[in-house]
């Protein structure tokens, strides 16, 4: 736990979520996206400073050294419990895609045990923290849900797994709500929750006494990434799959997506996701 307290008045807390695509200090020859030069890390770091984030919920990070290069020395890193030596059976032998948080070292947070979203499997652990903002204790989750089911439900493995993870999040939200506590869930949902009547949003929020706020419901998709078909061109996504959910008692801005500059996207190994950011007010 960090021991410094941030101001209790006149302070806006900025939170971001970012999937940094196979970020590792020990890249794999089998995974081209993981091979980053010193210049690539510098470009990622320069872009990250523009976010001015106090707390970053990250996904697809293999080790602390790699994420520290991106966020800088002024942050404390909380990597998923799945990275612990005691959880070696839940790790892959080469690269791992861990969730976690980077927190300014001036903030007071409490590290909480991971919340498994897919019981018995090595992937999809939600990292958990508690932060105190203006006297309010807020539970944070950094999540990375199953890919392959971004829209309507189809009875296949990807959608069945995603539905199971949605029910797990619903169970976590129900417990937090019953204790009368506040929460923020940030991460890569690999799904557009903003569709009207979306089935996964219904699953996550079913039976809750209060209505969580999807801060990304009206967020414009402006993210451009390097095209997989032509690395000299960019590709723009039409909708968001990275989201931030807040409890109704947490005052926040509408989320914005932070596009990476085109020259960085084309010139360096950045990410296939853009960060999403909110401010608590």
The level 1 CATH classification is: Alpha Beta
CATH level-3 fold name: Deoxyribonuclease I, Chain A
Radius of gyration: 18 Å
Q: Could you tell me the mean pLDDT?
A: 92
What can you see in these coordinates?
By secondary structure, this protein is α+β, with helices and mostly antiparallel strands. The chain has a single domain (13-280), classed as Deoxyribonuclease I, Chain A (4-Layer Sandwich), CATH 3.60.10. It has helices at residues 38-49, 64-71, 157-178, 199-205, 262-267; strands spanning 13-23, 55-61, 75-79, 98-104, 109-116, 125-133, 136-144, 182-188, 213-214, 224-226, 234-236, 242-246, 256-257, 276-280. The strands form 3 sheets. A 6-stranded mixed beta sheet has the order 3-4-2-1-14-13, covered by helices on one side. A hairpin with a 2-residue loop joins strand 6 and strand 7. Helix 1 (38-49) packs across helix 2 (64-71) and helix 3 runs parallel beside helix 4. It is globular, with a radius of gyration of 18 Å. The two termini are 24 Å apart. The model is unreliable at 1-10 (pLDDT under 50).
Task: Describe the secondary-structure layout.
Layout: E1 13-23, H1 38-49, E2 55-61, H2 64-71, E3 75-79, E4 98-104, E5 109-116, E6 125-133, E7 136-144, H3 157-178, E8 182-188, H4 199-205, E9 213-214, E10 224-226, E11 234-236, E12 242-246, E13 256-257, H5 262-267, E14 276-280
